[in-house]
């Protein structure tokens, strides 16, 4: 009996039907060397600081910054040269008051030193150096964890592994990663007229070479699947059934081409109806009307493509390839060069051509914005956080806000993140971001996060501490976290509070000035100063290492764990995770604010939904409480 196309499905219905097919390849673990192009299945957090030590960022001389105060061209300060430290070697010399150590770029900062005087600012004289310009603590020094800090969210699920991500993972010492499995796609060609390339062809008998098997296999591979070609089947019902059932048992998706039209000899739809479930037969598209969608055997997904190569490839690209990409976790492809508007004004005065790393984000109206991403040429995360580069000519001193620029994408399939967030780094936030598709988060600290949100760059900012919601945006949700002092297991110094830091020689490690934890500490120090009748500056001067800053929430705790500090500013959850003791100084609110014009963006909506289940997200995070 001849099959008729009476009710053709609309393209929208065809896509919905294909979307309903279950294609779920299992997660795989692959070596880093084999991970290029794969999709990360789980979040990877940094387990170490990168760099793992304070290092010189310029050639020069490691000094105590205070020893150079007052130095200028007319009245240089002389320091005794007591040794040298080179990249790749452990320092064997200490910088004492009044001394300096020669140091090369990338070398470990020797004990006692907190700054580097670059070679252009000194003059060497018989075992001494004359310093012609004062330096401040931290000048020309890259602190441990500047690139990425231990405990920070390195890469999230759904990230495509490119050479940039491989560089970051290599820096973290990761050699195996969990990736989404590639869907195995079986391909069966039908029709008595087809002959495989390489075999003898009889045109006089109406034979043609099998084009579809190879073009579709290439398309499957391009879409992120693994093609598996099965032997050619003619129009014999039993042979079709055997091959389709074998493919269904072995593959995530089965594709056939040919034998899908209303011809009397096109019998494949009957195989599907009798051995599975025929969900759709025919779509209102030209070319490509005769398309089958259904299941085979125990529910294996099946799609039948038309026999004509142009129709088969058209249907594949329009309807099937997106499903394979979705199963493989890959985004839709796009062109390699795009245009967008600068989100902020960017100055540049060095007089050289600049290849500026940039990120992409869409505003509330869907317009593409471009923002600079630059943490220094030695930071691998600059590449991970960027989507491409903007070439800035040497005679351009600035790019204006709103100016149209051309972005050279790192790859043709780069897309703006669904959500761009900035602000405080926080372990609860990492868990929330796992529930958002394709987020990007820049842990720049609460203060910098607020500034960028006011400038109109990100979709959301995460702020630890007090903030005026009317001033920054729309509050999406919040939680609290317990903060205080992290000390070694057993609290050997019997630390009870901030006063112990002031009254002892305990080595302290702080957070950077943009951190919400640093702001909370400053408030407590102010309160303690008032109680003791002293100035805040006087108290800070008595805390050894107060100006020693770190980049992420877990970094101070790890400094305590490894013996590099006696006390660190941190969170209870970090102390519990690392087996350390904790002295609580209070609770701090963490709020998520959205730009008022972006509250309806899908990524923002998804984050708001995730925030509604904060109590579940906070499970096993000591010291955290939903609000």
Task: Give structural notes.
The chain is α/β, with parallel strands linked by helices. The protein has 17 helices and 36 strands. Strands 28, 29, 30, 31, 32, 33, 34, 35 and 36 form a nine-stranded mixed beta sheet that branches. The chain has a six-stranded mixed beta sheet with strand order 7-4-6-5-9-8, with no helix packed on it. It has a six-stranded mixed beta sheet with strand order 16-13-17-20-19-18, sandwiched between helices. A hairpin with a 5-residue loop joins β23 and β24. The longest helix is centred in the middle third of the chain and has 20 residues, at 309-328. The chain is elongated.
Termini separation comes to 66 Å
Helical segment count: 17
| Beta-strand proportion | 25-35%
Major beta-sheet overview: 9 strands, mixed
> Helical amount among residues, as a percent range?
10-25%
By DSSP, the count of extended strands is 36
The radius of gyration is 31 Å
Counting helices, strands and paired strands, the structural category is: alpha/beta
List unreliable stretches of 5+ residues.
1-5, 261-265
Overall outline: elongated
* Rounded average pLDDT: 87
Write the layout of secondary structure elements.
Elements (H helix, E strand, L loop, with lengths): L10 H9 L8 E4 L12 E2 L9 E2 L3 E4 L13 E9 L13 E5 L11 E4 L3 E4 L2 E4 L9 E2 L10 E3 L7 H9 L4 E4 L4 E6 L4 E2 L12 E2 L2 H11 L3 E4 L7 H14 L2 E5 L10 H8 E6 L10 E5 L3 E6 L3 H20 L8 E6 L3 E2 L6 E9 L5 E5 L7 H6 L2 E5 L5 E2 L4 E6 L9 E5 L3 H7 L5 E4 L3 H10 L4 E5 L4 H4 L1 E14 L10 H6 L4 E4 L4 H17 L3 H6 L7 E2 L4 H7 L5 E5 H7 L2 E14 L7 H10 L2 H4 L6 E3 L1
Parallel strand pairs: 5-6, 13-16, 13-17, 14-15, 17-20, 21-24, 28-29, 28-30, 32-33, 32-34
Antiparallel strand pairs: 1-12, 2-11, 3-10, 4-6, 4-7, 5-9, 8-9, 18-19, 19-20, 21-27, 22-26, 23-24, 23-25, 25-27, 30-35, 31-34, 31-35, 31-36
């Amino acid at each position: 009996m001849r099959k008729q196309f009476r009710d053709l499905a609309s393209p929208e219905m065809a896509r919905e039907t294909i979307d309903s097919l279950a294609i779920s390849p299992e997660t795989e673990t692959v070596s880093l060397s084999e991970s290029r192009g794969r999709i990360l299945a789980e979040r990877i957090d940094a387990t170490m600081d990168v760099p793992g030590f304070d290092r010189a960022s310029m050639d020069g001389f490691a000094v105590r910054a205070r020893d150079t105060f007052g130095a200028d061209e007319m009245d240089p300060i002389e320091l005794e040269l007591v040794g040298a430290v080179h990249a790749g070697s452990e320092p064997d010399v200490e910088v004492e008051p009044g001394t300096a150590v020669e140091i090369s770029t990338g070398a470990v900062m020797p004990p006692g030193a907190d700054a580097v005087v670059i070679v252009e600012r000194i003059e060497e004289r018989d075992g001494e150096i004359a310093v012609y310009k004062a330096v401040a603590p931290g000048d020309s020094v890259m602190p441990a964890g500047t690139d990425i800090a231990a405990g920070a969210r390195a890469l999230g699920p759904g990230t495509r592994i490119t050479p940039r991500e491989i560089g970051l993972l290599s820096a973290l010492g990761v050699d195996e990663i969990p990736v989404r499995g590639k869907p195995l796609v079986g391909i069966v060609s039908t029709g008595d007229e087809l002959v495989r390339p390489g075999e003898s062809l009889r045109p006089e008998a109406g034979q043609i070479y099998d084009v579809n098997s190879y073009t579709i296999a290439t398309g499957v591979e391009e879409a992120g699947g693994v093609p598996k070609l099965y032997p050619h089947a003619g129009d014999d019902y039993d042979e079709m059934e055997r091959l389709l059932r074998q493919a269904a048992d072995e593959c995530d998706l089965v594709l056939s081409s040919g034998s899908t039209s209303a011809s009397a000899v096109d019998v494949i739809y009957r195989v599907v109806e009798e051995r599975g479930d025929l969900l759709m037969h025919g779509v209102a598209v030209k070319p490509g009307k005769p398309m089958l969608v259904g299941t085979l055997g125990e529910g294996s997904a099946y799609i039948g493509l038309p026999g004509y190569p142009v129709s088969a490839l058209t249907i594949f690209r329009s309807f099937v390839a997106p499903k394979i990409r979705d199963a493989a976790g890959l985004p839709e492809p796009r062109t390699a060069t795009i245009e967008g508007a600068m989100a902020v004004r960017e100055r540049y005065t060095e007089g050289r051509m600049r290849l500026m790393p940039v990120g992409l984000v869409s505003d509330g109206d869907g317009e593409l914005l471009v923002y600079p991403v630059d943490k220094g040429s030695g930071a691998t995360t600059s590449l991970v956080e960027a989507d491409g580069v903007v070439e800035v000519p040497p005679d351009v001193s600035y790019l204006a806000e709103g100016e149209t620029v051309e972005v050279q994408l790192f790859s043709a399939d780069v897309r703006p993140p669904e959500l761009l967030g900035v602000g405080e780094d926080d372990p609860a936030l990492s868990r929330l971001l796992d529930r958002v598709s394709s987020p990007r988060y820049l842990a720049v600290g609460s203060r910098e996060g607020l500034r960028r949100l006011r400038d109109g760059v990100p979709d959301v900012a995460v702020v630890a501490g007090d903030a005026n919601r009317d001033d920054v945006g729309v509050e999406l949700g919040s939680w609290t976290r317990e903060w205080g002092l992290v000390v070694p297991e057993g609290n050997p110094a019997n630390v009870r509070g901030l006063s112990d830091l002031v009254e002892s020689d305990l080595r302290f490690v702080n957070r950077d000035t943009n951190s919400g934890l640093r702001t909370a500490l400053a408030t407590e120090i102010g309160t303690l100063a008032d109680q003791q009748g002293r100035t805040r500056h006087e108290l800070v001067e008595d805390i050894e290492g107060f100006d020693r800053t770190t980049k992420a929430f877990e970094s101070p705790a790890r400094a305590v764990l490894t013996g590099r500090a006696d006390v660190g500013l941190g969170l209870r959850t970090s102390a519990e995770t690392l087996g350390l003791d904790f002295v609580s100084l209070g609770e701090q609110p963490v709020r998520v604010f959205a730009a008022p014009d972006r509250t309806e963006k899908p990524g923002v909506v998804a984050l708001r939904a995730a925030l509604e289940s904060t109590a579940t997200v906070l499970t096993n995070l000591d010291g955290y409480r939903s609000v």
